[in-house]
Design brief:
By secondary structure, this protein is an all-beta fold. It has one domain. Helix content is 0%, strand content 50%. Strands 1-2-3 form a three-stranded antiparallel β-sheet, with no helix packed on it. Strand 2 and strand 3 form a beta hairpin.
Length: 44
């Protein structure tokens, strides 16, 4: 999974590379460094 560290706080949806189900991804960055990461499965 590639994350864009140019945006401090972001939320987006990406398909799982294994099962193709959608996942809501919420990474947090400070000065380009990952400081938090949250991932949640989205029910279909």
């Amino acid at each position: 999974m590639l994350l864009d560290s140019s945006v401090q706080q972001q939320t987006y949806i990406e398909d799982c590379e294994v099962c193709c189900n959608p996942i809501e991804i919420t990474p947090s960055f400070d000065n380009g460094e990952l400081i938090g990461f949250y991932a949640q499965s989205i029910e279909q």
